[in-house]
């Protein structure tokens, strides 16, 4: 019997990415005891199960409030902080909007996008491929974080002072550039180094609002 893998996440709220006990219990019931469940580094569960049961399982999982995403070489769902400053001050609504539009795009290599609701950056956004950090009423975008290996590095500033309305267009533009010019299996950090930060800044500059830096 062929097997298929997909990703599951509960979304997020004040407190972070939280699976409720009843969701986990239902997950086990729906996918069955022969399925395999793997915890990823980007706050998703990977589920591997018999291919002929996958579509039915996905529908049932969504009915209990779980989000289902493709696995593999796609942009992952947004990796967020715990919104410890509250929903409004941390920009929970903006994060939810971003999560909806940036996830599941095919890319040359799995793409991790992080979000922090303040400069404390408790979700370690600067170790992600793309980072969004809320700074009072505006947002900064960083690119090219690399968390592993001897060449581990923090993401570099791409744009500062973006309005909430300009976040999704700018990040979607970055994803499109990566899709069109990235090499197969090329990490985003290496892609940024090859294309150069200056070129990426130039290619996405028109997406910015009047408050950008």
UniProtKB/TrEMBL annotation:
Record-annotated Nitrite/sulphite reductase 4Fe-4S domain positions: 100-204
Pfam family, one: NIR_SIR
Lineage of source species: Bacteria, Bacillati, Bacillota, Bacilli, Bacillales
Keyword Iron-sulfur: yes
KW Iron-sulfur (keyword) present: yes
InterPro entries noted in UniProt: NO2/SO3_Rdtase_4Fe4S_dom (IPR006067), NO2/SO3_Rdtase_4Fe4S_sf (IPR045854)
Protein name per its UniProtKB record: Nitrite reductase
Superkingdom assignment: Bacteria
One GO MF term: metal ion binding
Keywords of the record: Iron, Iron-sulfur, Metal-binding
């Amino acid at each position: 019997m062929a097997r298929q893998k997909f990703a599951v996440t509960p979304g997020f709220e004040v407190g972070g990415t939280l699976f409720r006990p009843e969701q986990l219990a239902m997950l086990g019931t729906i996918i069955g005891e022969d399925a395999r469940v793997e915890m990823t580094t980007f706050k998703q569960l990977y589920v591997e199960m018999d291919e002929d049961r996958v579509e039915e399982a996905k529908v049932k999982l969504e009915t209990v409030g779980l989000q289902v995403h493709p696995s593999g070489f796609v942009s992952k769902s947004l990796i967020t902080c715990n919104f410890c400053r509250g929903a409004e001050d941390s920009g929970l609504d903006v994060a939810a909007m971003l999560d909806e539009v940036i996830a599941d795009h095919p890319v040359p290599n799995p793409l991790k996008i992080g979000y922090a609701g303040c400069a404390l950056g408790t979700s370690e956004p600067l170790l992600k491929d793309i980072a969004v950090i809320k700074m009072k009423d505006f947002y900064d975008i960083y690119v090219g974080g690399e968390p592993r290996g001897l060449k581990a590095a923090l993401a570099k500033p791409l744009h500062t002072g973006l309005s909430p309305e300009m976040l999704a267009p700018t990040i979607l533009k970055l994803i499109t550039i990566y899709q069109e010019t990235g090499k197969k299996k090329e990490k985003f950090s290496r892609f940024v180094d090859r294309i150069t930060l200056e070129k990426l800044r130039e290619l996405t500059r028109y997406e910015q609002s009047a408050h950008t830096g």
